[in-house]
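Quick bug: Spermidine/putrescine ABC transporter permease output formatted oddly.
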Amino acid sequence: MESALERLWRTLVWAFVIFFVVNVLAMISTVVVNSFGTRWLNSWLPAAFTVRWYASAWREFQLGDVLLVTFQIAGAVVLLSALIGVPAAYALARRDFPGKPLVIVLFLLPLLVPPITFGIPLATVLYKVGLAGTMWGVIVANLVPTVPFTVILMIPFIEQIDPKVEAAARVFGAGTGRLFVHVLVPLLVPGILAATLLALVRTVSMFELTFLTAGPSSQTLVVALYYSVFAAGVRAGQSIDAMAVIYMLSTLVWLVVALRFVNPTQIVARVKKSAA
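Here's what came back:
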């Protein structure tokens, strides 16, 4: 039998969760409805609905070019993160060496520390070497948290593969390269898909590092959304909300797809194990 204090605590927790979820859904609903509304004053719903704000936002904010730049940067970050992160995750999952816990902690730091804390020194270095303000500068900045994220995410998938499979492949003459390409990669396809899709979502939604290192021709969608809200001039709120809806959909779709391949508890369990 649970005590009255436990029942009260459980009720308070559920009340807080419901309050939080309702507020988030209300804010999202307001943005979505306003992006389709003509005029919305002193009423529960807009006077009429239209899709012209999406066309207006597409033209005014040059969303075609912004989306192209966004996915060029995200694609490069995802590819480089996979090429660096998967072999690094394999080394950490299969090899024991002095200082391995320290290495794992170093990989965890960019995920635990707020990006703004290392983003300003990182941007300073990129400006000194001439990369800041370019697309490659944004890519390098986003690799700092994305590569460790890929490594930590891939380790549980690699640990699930029986080492005897690798030993059998070596018995039949497979070298390291063939073993990795023809044996491990096919077995790791779900993990690689999950890591790359989540890295894509993380890059598209990364504001701080991109804001600090982007130039006029290397702004991603989230940075362009910020400038559309706070830049000088008068803009229709519905156009900005339409741009926000496009941003939400561009991240939500990839996130839903990624969650079909990975269980978030795998990441939490691995982080707890590494910390221990």
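Actually, after a second look the formatting is fine. The chain has a mean pLDDT of 85. Closing.
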